[in-house]
Structures are given as C-alpha cells and as structure tokens.
Amino acid sequence: MSLTIHRTPSAHGNPMLIGAILAEGVARAPDQEIVYARRHRYTYRDLDKRVHQLAGMLAGLGITPGDTIGVMDWDSHRYLECFYAIPMMGAVLHTINVRLSPEQVLYTINHAEDDVILLNREFAPLLAAIADKLDNADTRIVLMDDGDDAALDGLDLAGEYEALMAAAPCTFDFPELDEDTRATTFYTTGTTGLPKGVYFSHRQLVLHTYASRALERETSQGELTVDDVYMPLTPMFHVHAWGMPYHATIKGVKQVYPGRYDPATIIGLYQQENVTFSHCVPTIFQMVVGAPAAEGVDFSGWKVIIGGAAMPPAMCRAALERGIDIYTGYGMSETCPVLTLALLPTELVDADIDTQVEFRCRTGRPVPMVQLRIVDNDMNDVAHDGQTPGEIVVRAPWLTQGYLKDEEHSEELWRGGWLHTGDIGVMDKDGWLRVTDRIKDVIKTGGEWVSSLDLEALITQHPDVAECAVIGVPDEKWGERPLALVVAKPGAALDPASVTALVQARADDGVISQYGVPDRVKVVDALPRTSVGKLDKKLMRTTMAD
Hints:
Blueprint: H1 18-28, E1 33-36, E2 40-43, H2 44-60, E3 68-72, H3 77-88, E4 92-95, H4 102-112, E5 116-120, H5 124-130, E6 139-143, E7 159-160, H6 161-167, E8 182-187, E9 197-201, H7 202-211, E10 229-230, H8 239-242, H9 244-251, E11 254-257, H10 263-272, E12 277-280, H11 282-289, E13 303-306, H12 313-321, E14 325-331, E15 338-341, H13 353-360, E16 365-366, E17 371-375, E18 390-395, H14 407-413, E19 419-427, E20 433-438, E21 443-445, E22 448-450, H15 452-459, E23 465-475, E24 479-488, H16 496-508, E25 520-523, H17 537-544
Parallel strand pairs: 1-11, 3-4, 3-5, 4-8, 5-6, 6-7, 10-11, 12-13, 13-14, 24-25
Antiparallel strand pairs: 1-2, 8-9, 14-15, 15-16, 17-18, 18-19, 19-20, 21-22, 23-24
Helix pairs in contact: 1-2, 1-9, 2-3, 2-6, 7-9, 12-13
C-alpha cells in the first residue's frame, strides 16, 4: 500500500511565507509599540500599513519579483519594514554590511546584482565614492532622520524614503509565492578571500522563527515572553539580527531599535523603554555595561544572549552579579543562525554562581530540529564524554544551501551531506556542547592541540586584563607556540610576566597543557576586530608573525 499523501486539487498548499509572521504579530498585538531611538514610535498596525506602502513604492519604481534591493541603514523601524515588504513582494532583501571596506561593499552590491539601494544619509559618502563602479543599482532612495530631502552630493536619487512612502498606496496585493523563493541574502565577514554570499528562502526563515521558540520554556530563565521589551544590539545586516526581529514580531512584543550603537543612547533607551531582552557579541555588551552612563544603572532582569564569540567566564560572572540573565547562543551566518542555546534546565536555575557560570558559558544544547554531530576527519562520531574533540557538523531545515554563485565553496561547505561549521567542540553525555576553538585558530604545538579559547578564558581571569586574544605563531621546534595579546583595564599597570605566571600555575595544576603556557605576552592598546565585532585572528597572525 502506498503511503504517499495526495492533495485534493482544490486544497490550499499553505506555503510558509514571511508575510505570515507579520500577520500573526499584527493579529496578536495590533496596538503594541515599535520604537526607533528617541525619534519615532508607532504600532504593529502602523507597521503593517507601511509594509504595504513600501511594497507599493518599490513596485512604482519598477521593482518586480526576483529583483534585489540593498539596504544600508542603522537598526531602525525602516529596516524592520524592509525585512517584510521586500521578500513579501517576491524580491530579495540584501542587507549590506556597512562596516566593510568600500571595496568590499562595492563587491557585495555588484555580486548580489542589487537593482535598488536604500541608504541612510550617513552612508551617502561611502556610496558616492563607489557609485561609478556599480554595475547596476542606479535607483537610490535616501533615508533621513531629520526630514531634510535636499539632494546629496555625488548621488542621483529617486527620492527620500518618507516622501516616497507618503505618495504610495496604502494597500498592496502581495503575490502568493513558492515558499522556496529566495527572500534574503547577505555576505559573510570571513577572514579569508572575498565575502561569500549566503541566502535563505521564505520557508527557511519561517522554520527558523518557529525553532527559536525554544525560548518559550517551562522556566523563566532566558525566556522571551509576551511581556518582554526587545532591543537588538546585533546589527540588522548581520544574519537578520540573528533572526530575532522575526521572532519578536510573531509574538507581538514591544520592539525598540536604537539606531547607531552609542552606549549612552542604548542605556537611555534601556531605562526609558524598560528593555528586558537583547542579544549581542561580547564586545558590544562590555561597551554598554562598562560605559560611564551605565554606572549605578539597575540591570537586574535584563535577559541577554551572547553570541558571535565565546563569552568569557569573568564577563558572565560580572553580569550575573549585576542581576543580568546572561547566557550563550551559537550559530553562524550559514545557519541563519541559531543552532544551540545555553538555557539552564530546571535543576540548575538556582545553582551556585560557579555552576551557573560554567553552564551559561557553554555553547548550549541544540534547538528543535537541529541535528548536531562531533566528528573526526573521516566523519565518524567521536565520544560524547565532554573531552574528545572533533569538528561540529550540522543539519537543520533552515541552513543555507550554499554560497551565492560559488559552487566550489558550496560543495566544500556541505561535503558529506552535513554543513561543516569549521568549529571544534566537545559534547557531554547530556548533549551539552562546548566549542573549544575554530579549526583555523587552534594552536598546534608539541604534538598537541591547544585551545586558544580556553587560554583566553583563563587569562581574562587576571585582575588587570580587560580583553585577550591568543594566536599561534610559527616556531621551528614546536610547530607553533601561543602568543597572548592582552588589553589592560583602564588605569592598570599590567605586568606581562604576571599573566604568564597565572597560566603556568594552571598548567602546574593540570588544568591546561604545559604546551599552552605562552612564550610571550604582549600588551596592546586594542585588539583588531572584524566588521561584526569578532576578533580578527587572521590579521593578528599576519601582523604578529615576526
């Protein structure tokens, strides 16, 4: 007997489309607020209307399904409108990384074949500098906060966003698309070669949104509830702000978008709008809570997901002591991004702070529908003993199917039918994952693999160390040796020898290998970072090789 399901010809297939996310949020909370910095606020009902207007405005400029629209803006209500209107009309949203170099921005716009660019006035000089090298993208719309619609030097404009929106119809007849229609694309900030374009369909974004409902759980720790106030501290150009604006919308929660990341503005919005849920990389978190404006601020009850880089235990402890419900999330651009969350099980919610720090700094456990393995070079599973390392490979319905126009790297990404993260990790018997390093960052010394992340976590326990990065540098005898680059806390007189002594003491105790004790500790003013705030270890290795 055949088990194939046959659909009645008149039945509706109910494709998974991004518009359904918006529709559910509007139905749940039509009068809920969306706030942009201290400049603008409106309701979900207004958002829905403006999504229709944006689609009508773009259609009036000749945009049709399959075209690509690039966006260059700070985190704003306008960006949120683009998250919905552009894919819903069958076009592709290209979230342009405004922190790339002008040459890389030019490359991504041409490679994505952008037809229209929406740009914040602040980025007009950047676009003007590369305008004569653009293959297309002749239609440019400027986004302004002050309402000034004066022409900008060096750019031909189709108009100003709000003026064009005001002239657009209030309703738009969105097409019913195939759920596998490409909805978004953006470019990785990898440290090798040109940026690589990743892309996601409507179906993948909807499934990722529902999988993120792992945040709705039996305990209150880390949970995003309908009573929360959401403010992203991850740029909206970076993996759709980790997909969280979609999740916030479908729940109908209040959303706050801070614009340019200025600590005083962020803290002011945190207090004024009663923000309770955010996510960011460690650098941004430290920038906010360590700012002068944060002194004396009550952060208790603020739930914060840390991703993009390992969370230092010292940072986690300091946050918990200030009442912040902080924990780790893990993923990458190619995974949409969420794969795991370090949400505490019921028995650990009231554990002592040492235990909580240990688990909150782990990489977490997979969210629903994620298959995650730790494998050796032959794709065999390694032991789940919390000790045996291997590469993390994954499958999930929302992972990118490859890199845009790049078959060679796409095949490499998916070799063996699993997406290769390039991360090394260990897993315990209960399914808790801990990323120990990037394959390209692990230090191969004395016949052992030494984790740069473990060394960094150890060194940041030094009372005078604010930040640390450990890289491997060539060594004739040992292959590589660890070099520690450290940033001192303000006003501290950091002695490099005391850092070495701290690591040596842990090696003597058997906590780390003796090969992990750095030969050199270099005090630097700042650590180089990528455009999304990650440590740029490739640049460090290049500049520190000698």
